[in-house]
Amino acid sequence: MYRCPLCNREFKSFAGLKLHFAKAHPVDGRGDCPLCGRRGVELRMHYYNRARAGDLLHKVVYGLTPRSNGWREAPLKKECRRLAMEVLKGPRTSLPREEEGQID
Fold this sequence. Notes:
Elements: E1 2-3, E2 10-11, H1 14-24, E3 30-31, E4 41-42, H2 43-52, H3 56-62, H4 74-88
Antiparallel strand pairs: 1-2, 3-4
Helix pairs in contact: 2-3, 3-4
């Protein structure tokens, strides 16, 4: 089972979770970040920039965002997708916090 990090809904497959995330938590356009509360940001770029900076929570969520055409993001996207699959699988009810350490 995979659990959505934003609404805790469970899915049998990672593909199902990604589809849910794309429909229920769109990243196109401006909005408030549900992870850090930053207001009025372009969410796809915000997740990308915070993931590049090494923020674990944003890396996990960025791993669920639909692919874009940006070639520069490909290695980071693969890393974040692997991390999301690892972190979101199982009965965990919330994302790990930075104090708990990085997941390698």
